[in-house]
Specification:
Blueprint: H1 2-6, H2 12-18, H3 22-29, H4 42-58, H5 60-69, H6 71-93, H7 98-115, H8 127-142, H9 148-154, H10 158-166, H11 173-201, H12 203-217, H13 229-253
Helix pairs in contact: 2-6, 3-11, 6-12, 6-13, 7-12, 8-9, 8-11, 10-11, 11-12
């Protein structure tokens, strides 16, 4: 999830969804309350959070290298992951009614539009601007198909964030990371409750919308350009079949209930 959240166009929520921990993730984040530390889901949040933070801080340099030098196979791999994820998620949710398909199409169009937006400096680089951008990005990280790092890229913040992760001791890096981190923390707590409520009360419709987000948001990492289509197809298939193997493994570990 940490590596996925660093890639513009890929959502950590997608990886949580295909690995079968999405709903548990939302419920665990909801337990984050300062007045009741004993009720926090530490056994789930500590290992998951440690893995995400480790990837964010130690994989950012490698990821930057891959984005610059091997963007086509990297994006193609995650494109295959997203396609397979959308298929399995839609199958589990039982999207058969016209209303479900309509919501799926709405989600796809919305994410497709967001993925095609031009860069903007809407929030600025002040404390509140950075914190609010981090909060919005956190909401996107929780939603499969909408990439938090891609939104930060649209806001003009992502290059500075990646540079700060690569050189946290440089001047201004620590302040930027803390500010965005505060916004992300608040965003996780707030949006986890919103999405959890929707899944609890409007389960199938919510998943229809999420599948649409996944499909439409893949526009941001479309790998099939004029050059390297064969390589893109290869890594798309690798990503696709990796999800199939992961789904088979998840079914052995825990029963998958129909959402």
């Amino acid at each position: 999830m940490g590596i996925a959240d660093l890639i513009p166009g890929v959502s950590g929520g997608t990886l949580a969804l295909i690995s079968g921990i999405y709903e548990e993730l939302l419920e665990s984040i909801k337990t984050l309350q300062l007045h009741s530390l004993k009720k926090i889901a530490w056994p789930f949040l500590v290992p998951l959070g440690s893995g995400i933070l480790t990837a964010v801080f130690f994989a950012s340099r490698l990821l930057y290298y891959l984005l610059v030098n091997y963007s086509t196979p990297l994006f193609a791999f995650f494109f295959g992951v997203i396609l397979a994820s959308a298929f399995f998620c839609g199958k589990k949710a039982g999207l058969r009614q016209i209303s479900h398909v309509s919501l799926l199409a709405l989600g796809a169009l919305l994410a497709f539009f967001i993925a095609g937006m031009q860069q903007t400096y809407l929030f600025g680089f002040g404390f509140f601007g950075l914190a609010f951008a981090g909060m919005i990005a956190a909401g996107a990280m929780l939603l499969p198909g909408i990439s938090g790092s891609y939104l930060l890229q649209l806001f003009g913040i992502y290059p500075f964030l990646l540079a700060a992760l690569n050189a946290p001791t440089a001047q201004g890096s620590f302040k930027l990371l803390i500010t965005i981190g505060l916004g992300v923390s608040v965003g996780f707590v707030f949006f986890s409750r919103v999405v959890s409520w929707l899944i609890t009360h409007l389960s199938t419709w919510t998943y229809a919308l999420l599948v649409g987000f996944m499909l439409g948001g893949s526009r941001a990492i479309w790998p099939f350009h004029k050059e390297g289509r064969g390589l893109a197809l290869l890594f798309t298939l690798i990503g696709f079949f990796l999800v199939i193997l992961l789904e088979m493994r998840v079914k052995k570990i825990r029963p998958i209930q129909k959402v």
